[in-house]
């Protein structure tokens, strides 16, 4: 039993977790020398590769000096905190990765708090020590202060540290002592992370993750806490609500390298995957057939934001997607609930509309992006924060916001955030950059990233984490520009767009198909305006087609999905199809908009 170590790698987004796992896999010869598997091996779905972030946690196992090390790579974004909270249950220690220049960031704090509460042993890796202006010693002090602040116990505060650069493939016990491999890190893990504690008794395993195979169905993944599981063995499934279902294990797999290996039996302490158990959910316990004992289930923080999902009823529905009915959307959202624990689904008064609750705009937009790639069409309403009543007072979610930007532009950031009811907590200079911390209502963060990036020419870096609920801070004024709305269905004609350019900025390219009620631009004034961009130039004997000035059309603003969701007002929807993202008014005709003013 001594020869197993289970560790989770936790860090703020972009501090180098997945890169470090790559280097560990190469060092432990998971691949042949002539095999080129590239970088960020564990970020294996398209969305993760495009965005450069980890979205779902992954398991991989390596063998080093005769010890099997199960490594869990976790996401770094606060919106995917639900993933991190559940997989920490499988680990006995955590590898906390900190950037030697940035130091501990908001997300580091969030995940570290969860790990310390679970009583895990932290090992610290100070990464990117080759960055200029970095301060590895100061960062080490800051990590200690942070752990002390989070209430770490003495044995946790006595944490080992290695320094290095995962990208350049070295780790050592001092940041000036450059080596040529990551052995220092692996030695630290083997010496300091305890072997899994195994208590005597009947088998018990908490299901903390799940996988799906088209051949065998759903696969339960978790760490066996005690006892032994064997292939073909009858077991009891203890559900969250106390119901006990009898079942049988068809196959057992343990993790080996990037894949899984079929085994006859699994001993306590190892992470394994079970095939053949039906109807389980994350948080259920697999226990003994005769006298089952359930483990404590996983608690996950509540969602803070909601979005309305509805069927696509625009004039262009069904042209690009395969799944367009409310039944398709309902089935897909229900399927997502099984593995996405931080998400919840609520009914509305209409059969075509669903309220989806999640951790933030990014959390829900990743779901929407995945669905549109699978061929779904739908419309999404404006993101709303969840308001609660606590002790008779109206309360809203508050987040800690950290903005890292060039010192010369810091005034604009403070102005934007205080306008959105944010309060500044601290301001510190690092080189030529300034790091400012605020407390801000979650409502104020919606749409802030766009404004900040525009004002700082793309230089600002934003990170935020949920703190808790506080009394309502009052109204925040939304977008101060109105929309340009199409009056007609047809093609956007360059001649018309050219004549209307002084009215505002456009979101559509010339010759795009548009429909009545579609939001095709932003008005330069604060009210909405209907325009006709399908009007062609009249040609007669006097006005020929060739004697005008050339039309000079400014390139349109093209929104990404998150930007579109943050941009819309409460009387607008984002129409999402596999090929396009359009903005539209909920009521397409002008008479309807006047009649049902939202």
In short:
By secondary structure, the protein is an alpha+beta fold. It is built from 15 helices and 35 strands.
Task: Give a written overview of the molecule.
The strands form 6 sheets. Strands 18, 19, 20, 21, 22, 28, 30, 32, 33, 34 and 35 form an 11-stranded mixed beta sheet that branches. An 8-stranded antiparallel beta sheet has the order 12-11-17-8-9-16-13-14, with no helix packed on it. The chain is globular, with a radius of gyration of 27 Å. With 598 residues, the chain is an alpha+beta fold. The N and C termini lie far apart (64 Å). The protein is 22% helix and 33% strand. The chain contains 15 helices and 35 strands.
List keywords for this structure.
598 residues; alpha+beta; 11-stranded mixed sheet; 8-stranded antiparallel sheet; 15 helices; 22% helix
Question: How are the SSEs placed, and which strands pair?
Answer:
Blueprint: E1 4-11, H1 17-27, H2 46-51, E2 58-64, E3 67-73, H3 81-87, E4 93-99, H4 106-117, E5 121-127, H5 136-149, H6 154-157, E6 161-165, E7 170-172, H7 183-192, E8 204-213, E9 217-226, E10 228-230, E11 234-238, E12 244-248, E13 251-256, E14 259-263, E15 265-267, E16 271-275, E17 285-287, E18 305-310, H8 326-339, E19 344-347, E20 353-358, H9 361-373, E21 378-380, E22 384-385, E23 388-390, E24 393-406, H10 410-419, E25 423-430, E26 433-441, H11 442-445, H12 448-455, E27 461-471, E28 483-486, E29 490-491, H13 494-499, E30 504-506, E31 513-514, E32 518-523, E33 529-531, H14 561-567, E34 572-576, E35 581-585, H15 590-595
Parallel strand pairs: 1-3, 1-4, 4-5, 5-6, 28-33
Antiparallel strand pairs: 2-3, 6-7, 8-9, 8-17, 9-16, 10-15, 11-12, 11-17, 13-14, 13-16, 18-20, 18-21, 18-22, 19-20, 21-34, 23-24, 24-26, 24-27, 25-26, 28-32, 29-31, 30-32, 32-35, 34-35
């Amino acid at each position: 039993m001594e020869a197993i170590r289970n560790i989770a790698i936790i860090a703020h987004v972009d501090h180098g977790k997945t890169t470090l796992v790559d280097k560990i896999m190469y060092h432990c010869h998971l691949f042949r020398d002539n095999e080129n598997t590239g970088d960020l091996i564990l970020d294996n779905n398209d969305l993760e590769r495009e965005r450069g972030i980890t979205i779902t946690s992954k398991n991989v196992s390596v063998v080093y000096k005769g010890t099997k090390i199960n490594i869990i790579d976790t996401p770094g974004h606060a919106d995917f905190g639900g993933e991190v909270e559940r997989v920490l249950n499988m680990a006995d220690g955590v590898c906390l990765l900190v950037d030697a220049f940035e130091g501990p960031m908001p997300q580091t704090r969030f995940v570290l708090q969860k790990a310390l509460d679970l009583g895990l042993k932290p090992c610290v890796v100070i990464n990117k020590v080759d960055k200029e202006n970095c301060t590895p010693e100061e960062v080490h002090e800051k990590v200690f202060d942070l752990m002390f602040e989070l209430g770490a116990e003495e044995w946790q505060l006595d944490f080992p540290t290695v320094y290095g650069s995962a990208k350049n493939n070295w780790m050592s016990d001092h940041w000036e002592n450059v080596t040529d491999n990551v052995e220092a890190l692996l030695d630290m893990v083997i010496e300091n992370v305890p072997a899994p504690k195994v208590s005597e008794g009947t088998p018990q395993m908490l299901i903390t993750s799940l996988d799906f195979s088209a051949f065998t169905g759903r696969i339960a993944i978790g760490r066996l806490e005690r006892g032994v599981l064997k292939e073909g063995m009858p077991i009891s499934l203890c559900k969250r609500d106390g119901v006990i279902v009898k079942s049988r294990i068809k196959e057992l797999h343990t993790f080996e390298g990037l894949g899984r290996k079929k085994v006859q039996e699994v001993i306590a302490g190892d992470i394994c995957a079970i095939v053949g158990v039906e109807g389980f959910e994350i948080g259920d316990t697999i226990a003994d057939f005769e006298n089952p004992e359930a483990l404590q289930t996983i608690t996950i923080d509540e969602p803070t934001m909601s979005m309305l999902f509805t069927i696509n009823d625009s004039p262009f529905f069904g042209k690009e997607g395969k799944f367009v009915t409310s039944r398709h959307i309902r089935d897909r959202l229900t399927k997502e609930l099984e593995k996405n624990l931080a998400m919840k689904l609520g009914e509305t008064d209409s059969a075509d509309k669903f309220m989806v609750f999640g951790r933030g705009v990014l959390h829900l937009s990743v779901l929407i992006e995945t669905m549109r790639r699978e061929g779904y069409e739908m419309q999404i309403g404006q993101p709303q924060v969840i308001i609660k009543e606590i002790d008779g007072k109206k309360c809203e979610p508050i987040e800690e916001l950290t903005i890292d930007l060039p010192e010369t532009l810091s005034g604009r950031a403070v102005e934007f955030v205080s306008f959105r009811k944010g309060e500044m907590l601290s301001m510190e200079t690092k080189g030529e950059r300034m790091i400012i911390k605020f407390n801000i209502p979650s409502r104020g963060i919606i749409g802030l990233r766009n404004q900040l990036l525009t004002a700082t020419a793309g230089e600002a870096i934003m990170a935020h984490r949920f703190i808790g609920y506080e009394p309502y801070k009052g109204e925040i004024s939304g977008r101060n520009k109105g929309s340009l709305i199409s009056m007609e269905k047809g093609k956007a004609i360059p001649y018309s767009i050219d004549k209307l350019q002084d009215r505002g900025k456009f979101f559509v390219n010339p010759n795009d198909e548009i429909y009545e009620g579609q939001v095709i631009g932003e008005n330069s004034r604060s009210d909405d305006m209907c325009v006709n961009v399908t009007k062609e130039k009249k040609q007669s004997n006097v006005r020929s087609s060739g004697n005008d000035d050339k039309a000079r059309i400014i390139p349109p603003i093209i929104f990404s999905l998150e930007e579109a969701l943050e941009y819309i007002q409460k009387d607008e929807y984002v129409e999402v199809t596999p090929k396009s993202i359009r903005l539209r008014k909920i009521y397409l005709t002008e008479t309807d908009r006047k009649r049902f003013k939202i």
